[in-house]
Amino acid sequence: MFIKEGWTVEDLTEDYGEDFFVRIFEQGTATPFGFFVQSKATNSMERYLSTDATHISYPVTTKHLEHWNRFWEPIVLVIFDANTGIVYWRIIQNWMEQQSEQRLNQLRKQTTASVRIPVKNVLDDAGVVKLRDMTVMRFNRFENEQEGANHLINCLKENIGLDISYDAQDGILVIPNGEFVSSPDGGASTIFFGKTLVMIEKTYGVRPYI
Fold it and tell me: Which domains does the chain have, with CATH numbers?
């Protein structure tokens, strides 16, 4: 399906859980967008199908989930039904972002977790378009967060002289101990981006600002 779209598929020699990397092309030209694929196949899909036949629950090790959640490139779980030839898919990080922090804490105590894939997520022509759009959206979100963080870091360095580092994967600005001058009332500001911001919103139902 990906090759049919003119995209390139690169097999990964090291086994870290991702089977191959797909680079998206537009009219024969490579784009900066791409995603990793974890591919599975089964000839007994009924084992994973929900009783109401609305979704598939496929087991994935929590070690891999933690590993993949640190990627900004989408990790796409692909399930091939050998009996029907239908391919189902879901972006792992999107599934994880929909889980509550309490649920994620529970999963960390387990060795496996069941990732739910809606049966409507079929990798047909429409599914490929949707996957492309979601990949581009995720990359754009990452670039916007990077740009905002870099702008803030430059402002703080120029105006305060702080040597600040930024964890782009977790979305946290790190200010060295002893170098931050608190406000007169004793308060201080912490800046969150990306996954950490999403986690705070889900856990406390609020959006933190500077």
Answer: 8-140 (3.40.1350), 148-204 (no CATH)
By DSSP bridging, strand 29-42 and strand 75-81 are parallel
Closest CA to 92 of 125, 122, 61, 119: 61
Q: Please count the residues of the chain.
A: 210
Give the pLDDT of the chain (210 residues) as one tens digit per residue: 788 888 999 988 766 778 999 999 998 999 999 999 999 999 999 999 999 999 999 999 999 998 898 888 999 999 999 999 999 999 999 999 898 888 888 988 999 999 999 999 999 999 999 999 999 999 988 887 777 777 777 776 777 666 666 666 555 666 655 444 444 554 445 555 566 566 656 666 655 544
Query: What's the distance, CA 97 to chain centroid?
Result: 8
Q: Rounded distance, CA 129 to CA 90, Å? A: 13
Q: Please list the residues that pair with 49 across neighbouring strands.
A: 56
Give CA–CA dist 154/56, Å, rounded: 46
